Write the structure tokens for this entry.
Amino acid sequence: MADADLSSFFTPRNIALVGASDRSAWSAMVYYCFELYDHKGKLFAVNRGGKSAHGLPGYTSCTEIEDRVDAAFIYVPAGAVVEALHDAAAAGIRNAVIISSGFAETGAEGAAMQEDVVRTVRELGIRFMGPNSLGFANLAHDSVMTSVKTRKPVRTGHLAIISQSGALVNEMGKVAHCNGIGLAFLGATGNEAGLTITDLLGYLVDDDAVSAICIYSEGIRDHARFMAAATRAREARKPVVMLKLGRSAISGAIAEAHTGSLIGDDGVFDAMCQRTGVIRCASIEEVIATADLLGRIGPIDPPRLALSSISGGACALMADLADEHGLTVEPFTQETQDALRKVLPAFAATLNPLDVTGALVQQPEVWQDVIPIMARNANTGLAIVCQPIPNVDTEIESLTPSIRAIVAGFRAANQPAVIVDLSVQTRSKEQLELIGEIGVDVPVQGVGLVGVVDAGQVQDVGDSEAGVFLGEGLVVDRGRRQAAEPVDGGDVDGARRLLGDVVEVADSATPQVGGVGVGTAGDHRADPDLPVDELGVAVGRVGVPRGQPVGPVVDLDAAGPGLERILD
């Protein structure tokens, strides 16, 4: 779908619930969400019998509704979706979310039905999410079209969560809620025959209510547009943190069965993320915590840490994690060490990480002197204090003085700083109340979250088992999609116009080779005798030396035969 202003799509007020019925559990869930999120606008029940539902007036057609209707929320059987779209268009409705499933995720017959939906919306001029989409909740703008619940009380904040999977966006929302993190937006794109993750990302980059974006993706359909949107996010200093499937072959098969997605090669996607500043995480908890942290403090610049704790073990663990994730922990300057010696016990070392010792359990007020000194150390991008945050009644009295002193130290430093809990725990009501009371702005759980990557550096793409060339000149993504016809490997001039002289095109008269080869230097040259795969591209593995930049990427998994330039 072409780039367009989606602000009206994501802020509907009056909505037709097409398929609404008191006998449907899905319909009841949809209506409950409008009440839960306190949607601002009118709702109308549309069904074949014209019956009222959930206390709403009933209509047999959207055309019967006298009020202006901004969008249609469609959850009729798959075979009735096209008819529902025609009815919506006849009423002047140009925006829709289609919950209905039974399309491309079910196989060839469902895929053909999905194509009918796509042809219909193009003819009618309707923008839509779905099918198999659970819609969106635009909390920042009081507008809802979703069946994704949240826990009470609804927490509104700065974080956006978007996902192809409705279940995953629901789970990510729960993790955020349990940690006291408020949401500005959540959305589930489903099969992405209409709006995609990339479209939602582009919209959220431009929304001032959003400061960080979490993504769960089963496959990016338009790499170039995704990279453009991610680059805009980076320029806006708006972090994009992602949990993407594709590290194993079985996850690709699951994704195709789930939403009809084709994942593509993970090594190439890693290179795309590193080039555009997208941070990839390995778990839901890490995605939410990392996005929340960076959304509050912004990118860590420079990527150097000042670490401290009352525990020497915690200091060592944080140092290892920082090194593992490419963050620098340098010794404090002599000036900083001299200043620390004046406020710490004589037996305390002044290393970075800084073990302030258990003496600060008895004298927590010393944190108010220590934190400004370490935070203002030359070339420090973030100060981190690893400290348990009281979570139950028995801890509140003993640990609260330390937390108060640390927060006071943060304010005195006036530099980016964060408390990191020693482990991930369920936050209690008492802990959330304490955090709100004393103003702990960024209570991050788990020392593993020290690993906030400097995504601007291409560190290591690694080898690929999927036939991807990784070299100085070119990265070729074979993907997993069968092309309608072989890519024309004989178009030497066309390939060189696209990629420049780094491209070598093999002799198409030789049956063993053909398509686009890779021009690399030294010992990393691709094997010229590699066999040709079904797309006409030589299959093989070429490693990238650690620290070398990745060259241009050509996506042969684009719509239709041909080459699409992805990375310069």
User: Anything to note?
Assistant: Residues 255-263, 447-568 have pLDDT under 50 and may be disordered. The domain at 150-299 is CATH 3.40.50.261 (Rossmann fold). The two ends are 23 Å apart (CA to CA).
